[in-house]
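Morning. Coffee machine broken again, so started the prediction first thing and wrote up yesterday's gels while waiting. Chain of 278 residues, entered below exactly as on the submission form.
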Amino acid sequence: MVDAHRIVEVDGTPVLLQGQGEQVILMLHGWPDTLALWDGTVAALQDRYTCARLTLPGFEADSPVSQLSLDAMTDFLRRVAQRVSPDRPVTLMIHDWGCVFGYELAMQHPEQVARIVAVDIGDHNAGALQRLWTARQKASVIGYQVWLAVAWKLGGAGGLGEMLGTRMTRVMARWMRCPTDPATMTWRMNYAYAMRWFGTASGLTQARKIRPTMPLLYAYGERKPFMFHTPRWLQEQSEREGCRVQGFDCGHWVMISRAEPFHELVRQWLDEACAHAG
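Came back before lunch.
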């Protein structure tokens, strides 16, 4: 059960804070989710940690259409981190597009991030990753991502385009066996795919390579048609001091499909990492 919460706002975006403890965990979701993705994780950690989470700008059904560039999103998240934990760096807990934006925050502002718990997305923009994918895997990635980018464009056109864009979003989520309630999904959530494929808001070409300097726990699903990390990156992270990688027999939404072992792993790693940090 998730306990009572308090809310702060950053640029009009509500940030939920729950739990207790000096260490703040800032949780960032991805597609096609909202802050509700972390309900179970908050329930598992709130007795020892303060959990801060938000629905990313543009992902709420009734929110304005997002036009944040990668740098603008990074600066927004920096200010969120400072607001929820003004006296010490946060622990980032990130998934899917939350990983893309969260890694960028950690690369640009390492002083704001003490450690990272990343789920299912590693060195996603490494050239070596695309070279490792088979032709079929490349076609699958391009197919679903362009589909969602087009859905965002259609939704932005208004009128029937919004209905069609949302319909396309929910069809793709069902095809990908997404556990999120389809009623919460809209075309707005596809914004990052438009950045990726259409260069919306300056695109993602300036995203930094994923080379974290802080301790990292990387959990990923092993039962997927393709991975978003290279074997070399996985090995490098497993060999860094204070880091750990762990695969699970599931798909993309590890915190849902393997909730109990995932939360046990996270709690153990965080307890050790925070104790070591003093």
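The beta strands are 5-10, 13-19, 24-28, 50-53, 90-95, 113-119, 216-221, 244-248. Going to sketch it on the whiteboard this afternoon.
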